[in-house]
Design a protein that fits this description.
This protein is α+β, with helices and mostly antiparallel strands and 581 residues long. It has helices spanning 49-63, 125-129, 141-167, 240-248, 260-270, 312-320, 362-372, 376-390, 393-401, 468-484, 504-521, 541-549, 563-567, 571-580, and strands at 13-26, 31-40, 73-74, 79-82, 90-96, 104-120, 176-177, 184-186, 191-203, 216-228, 274-277, 286-297, 302-305, 308-311, 330-336, 339-344, 348-350, 404-417, 423-425, 429-431, 452-453, 456-461, 488-489, 496-498, 529-534, 557-562. A hairpin with a 4-residue loop joins strand 8 (184-186) and strand 9 (191-203). The longest helix is centred in the first third of the chain and has 27 residues, at 141-167. The chain is flat. InterPro entries: Argonaute_Mid_dom (IPR032473), Argonaute_N (IPR032474), PAZ_dom (IPR003100), PAZ_dom_sf (IPR036085), RNaseH-like_sf (IPR012337). Residues 271-366 form the PAZ domain.
Length: 581
């Protein structure tokens, strides 16, 4: 089957399909003003991006005067766009910090005009209409380059204007934002998977080269990201001890007698995360970063004071009037102002909205995959909910100031449901296709063209018990199935290599050993395939694929399978596996 030269065909039934696009209508006469902003604390340091977003909300409010009460928009780093000229370009704002105590801190901002600070929304038409557009006619190459540069900046301004209010009050990345009201899933070990949304202005094809353009769209899709689980502030379950129980999947009493491997796991996950610490009823609180947990508890952790030796438990009772409820819990050592300080675990709580960037376990990956796997109808429904609830009236008023109006319904396009292809096997054998599937286990079904499997090896990537007899029986059945499909397989059984550890270096070492052994076993033929037997939902899958692709600088095909199928190999499974190989 080939695509017609003009890109269109006639086969199949015509249907209308929805796209995750919303039509953008643009006014060509609105102005854009482009600035760079620098923000400094009282100490002259630049705040982190999350704090910059909070600071810029106050800068926005300073410029949002009458008559429209709308201010400039910010990309979260240094770029600012405005629908009107800004004056004055310097000032200060007082903003409450994320840290405890919740006191306001003064920040200075300086806005600087870029080289060409002003353009109109119509400048984007150079990019929308392309090189054949009316604005590009009779232009030199240099002039065209300048116009396209201006159009790209205008496109960036549109994206920033659309995203600004969406991402201003929730965690965000350079591409996505994660509203608090969006669905989320606890995937275990103190990790929360949050749904987010991606927006981006897209340009479609057009034959209409007259303004306003009809090929400008807002693409909106879903994504996910992992965060450290932190219940709402003030929730009794928002203590660091509760999070540690989730990470280790243990009862709170177990925290009083942790093993060394438990400490290592907690240290790996919690190090550098921010915690809020409330030491007593009169304390406004402080925010610190976790360094590690102690092997001692608050009752037997002793340190020196001006009045002599004391325990952490006694110090908190005397200094803060707080009698610890759980003095047997480990202590938390924090980093701040160049020194390390010890705090009882029960006075600490995790700060909300912190990204979790460590590698997920196999079970977590499976839960995340199920959460993200949504049928098209459900996906479009959730995107529409986000369109309706996230882009509220305030957002639409801001976009109107930039000459932007976003449609409320999905863009529709025509598509065709093509007839099923003819599946042809060896000896002109044709198989009927129904509902997109056909019987691959039919007897005497051989591939139209097949290669010779001259050299291969088996790599066992699990510590689970696998009897030699069961493995040999499985490999014999697999070889028989390959031959039935028309694949010629070497007579000798493949060598079997076992992984010596559960990590990427061990995977690389095992594949190298498997390749060398296969080369020796099959008359110096380089290996063509590694059959890798893993646990169910193994976290080694990515490592196996990467190391297989990089094997001997040329790559070797890797086929993963789960150990349970070795012990109970069914004919249908062997057929599926043979076809994949």
């Amino acid at each position: 089957m080939t695509r017609p030269a003009n890109g269109l065909g006639t086969n199949g039934n015509l249907i209308n399909v929805q796209l995750n696009l919303f039509k953008i209508s643009m006014s060509p006469t609105n102005n854009f003003f482009h600035y760079n902003v620098e923000i400094f604390s009282a100490k002259g340091t630049s705040p982190p991006i999350a704090m910059k977003k909070r600071i810029f909300k106050d800068i926005y409010a300073k410029f949002a005067d009458a008559p429209d009460r709308l201010g400039p928009v910010f990309d979260g780093d240094k770029t600012v766009y405005s629908h009107k000229e800004l004056d004055p370009l310097e000032g200060t704002v007082s903003v409450a910090s994320f840290k405890l105590p919740p006191e306001k801190e003064e920040f200075k901002y300086i806005l600087t005009e870029v080289e060409r600070p002003k353009w109109k929304t119509s400048d984007i038409f150079h990019l929308v209409f392309g090189p054949q557009g009316p604005t590009m006619q009779n232009r030199s190459e240099g002039e065209r380059g300048n116009l396209m540069g201006t159009a790209r900046r205008a496109m960036q301004a549109l994206n920033v204007a659309i995203r600004y209010l969406l991402a201003a009050d929730c965690p965000s990345t350079s591409r996505a934002f994660f509203p608090d009201a969006a669905p989320s899933l606890d995937i275990g070990a103190g990790v929360l998977l949050r749904r987010g949304y991606i927006t981006h202005v897209r340009i479609g094809n057009t034959t209409n080269l007259k303004a306003p353009p009809d090929n400008l769209f807002l693409a909106m899709d879903m994504t996910c990201a992992t965060f450290l689980d932190a219940p709402p502030e003030g929730n009794p379950a928002n203590t660091l001890a509760d999070l540690c129980c989730k990470i280790l999947n243990v009862h709170p009493q177990r925290l009083c007698s942790l093993k060394e491997e438990d400490y290592r796991k907690l240290h790996k996950i919690l190090r550098r995360f921010k915690i809020n610490i409330i030491r007593g009823e009169s304390d406004k609180g402080i925010t610190k970063s976790i360094d590690h947990l102690t092997l001692t508890n608050s009752r037997n952790e002793i340190f020196e004071t001006d009045e002599g030796k004391t325990s952490v438990e006694a110090f908190f009772l005397k200094t803060w009037g707080r009698r610890l409820r759980f003095p047997e819990l480990p202590n938390v050592v924090t980093i701040g102002k160049g020194k390390k300080t010890v705090y009882p675990m029960e006075v600490c709580s995790i700060r909300k909205g912190q990204r979790y960037i460590l590698k997920l376990t196999g079970d977590q990956q499976s839960s995340a995959l199920r959460f993200q796997t949504i049928k098209p109808a459900g996906r479009f429904e959730q995107i529409m909910v986000a369109r309706q609830h996230v882009m509220d009236s305030a957002h639409e008023r801001l976009l109107n100031a930039y000459g932007i109006k976003i449609g409320r319904t999905f863009v529709e396009a025509q598509a065709r449901v093509l007839p099923p292809p003819v599946v042809e096997y060896k000896n002109d054998l044709r198989i009927p296709v129904r509902d997109g599937q056909w019987n691959i286990a039919k007897p005497n079904l051989q591939l139209l063209t097949s290669k010779v499997l001259k050299s291969w090896a088996v790599v066992i990537c699990t510590n689970a018990h696998l009897p030699e007899a069961a493995l040999m029986n499985f490999l014999g059945g697999l070889r028989t199935k390959l031959i039935q499909l028309g694949v010629q397989v070497a007579d000798a059984p493949p060598p079997v290599i076992r992984l010596t550890g559960q990590g990427t270096p061990q995977v690389k070492e095992a594949l190298e050993k498997a390749g060398k052994t296969a080369w020796q076993s099959f008359n110096k033929n380089p290996p063509q395939l590694f059959l890798c037997i893993t646990d169910d939902r193994s976290f080694l899958y990515n490592s196996i694929k990467v190391e297989g692709d990089n094997f001997a600088s040329r790559g070797v095909t890797t086929q993963c399978m789960v150990i349970k199928h070795v012990k109970n190999a069914k004919d249908q499974y062997l057929s599926n596996l043979a076809l994949k190989m």
